[in-house]
Design brief:
Blueprint lengths: L2 H8 L3 E5 L3 H14 L3 E5 L2 H10 L4 E5 L1 E2 L2 E2 L1 H10 L2 E6 L16 E3 L4 H11 L1
Parallel strand pairs: 1-2, 1-3, 3-6, 6-7
Antiparallel strand pairs: 4-5
């Protein structure tokens, strides 16, 4: 099996990107589509993210930790209850305070790369 085939098999088909920075969201979408994800939906707010998961099925959600005055932790709890895999991205490194239920959740730092996102998918299982 080639590396490309192995990577394609490990990728989610549909990904929700919860990111309030438009440039970073577009970069994530570009990387995900290049990696081979078939559907990428961007949500800039928690409200948009809730509407997206109510309207369609997702295999994975990429969650920016800080969304202005809010965080994505409550939304991660909703995803967990629905059985949707997720991973966090953050620009704050290990100093970020994660609630105990998410301390072992997969995460990567911004700026992310195709390799770091692929590793995030693998860590999410």
């Amino acid at each position: 099996m080639t590396e490309v085939t192995a990577r394609t098999m490990a990728l989610p088909e549909s990904v929700l990107v919860l990111e309030d920075n438009f440039i970073i969201a577009m970069e994530a979408e570009d990387i995900l589509l290049t990696l081979g994800c078939r559907k990428v939906v961007i949500a800039a707010t928690l409200e948009e993210a809730h509407a997206a998961i109510d309207a369609g099925a997702f295999d994975f959600a990429l969650l920016d930790v800080n969304l202005g005055q809010q965080t994505s932790f409550e939304f991660a709890s909703v995803l967990k209850a629905r059985g949707i895999a997720f991973g966090f991205v953050s620009g704050y490194g290990e100093d970020e305070v994660f609630p105990s239920e998410f301390r072992s959740s997969p995460r990567t730092l911004k700026p992310f790369t195709s390799d770091s996102l692929f590793s995030l998918f693998q860590a999410a299982g």
